């Protein structure tokens, strides 16, 4: 969930790289190292994913098709969650998701959220002075995390 809040959408395989049967917790530095390694999805990656669903290459996906996919595959979303997405992303009230526009909206919103969070951190003197983990002692590049398979479940519910 925290990785998703930071703009990442990790697969279970990715989670398993960092959270193993031996892992009991991660400190802030570990989290920062993961963020540096796991980059947010690009517009091209998002469009490619939607393109696999849009077999006609029409540039949109019917809401019914999106409901079926998001409520039955992978980390299943609820009907209410999918309804929230389709209401916000039906730009022309056609019952279709224009996934090119949706990707632009998603990336713009994500960027705005990151800028706002950075601004709050920079403007709050208490947060500026706070030190997390062992950042001053080690660079995050030096952190290595164990690799193992685990059954940790991560929900992919997003706003």
UniProtKB/TrEMBL annotation:
GO terms under biological process: positive regulation of protein localization to ciliary membrane
InterPro entries given in the database record: EF-hand-dom_pair, EF_hand_dom, Miro-EF-hand_domain
Protein name: EF-hand calcium-binding domain-containing protein 7
Main location: membrane
Chain segments carrying region Disordered: 131-159
Keyword Metal-binding belongs to the record: yes
Cellular compartments annotated: Cell projection, Cilium membrane
Membrane topology note: Peripheral membrane protein
CDD domains: EFh
Domain named EF-hand: residues: 41-76
Organism in which the protein naturally occurs: Anthoscopus minutus
PROSITE patterns, A to Z: EF_HAND_2
Database matches in Pfam families: EF-hand_7 (PF13499)
Lineage per the UniProt record: Eukaryota, Metazoa, Chordata, Craniata, Vertebrata
Record bears the keyword rRNA-binding: no
Keywords, ordered alphabetically: Calcium, Cell membrane, Cell projection, Membrane, Metal-binding, Repeat
Superkingdom: Eukaryota
GO cellular component: ciliary membrane; plasma membrane protein complex
GO molecular function, one term: calcium ion binding
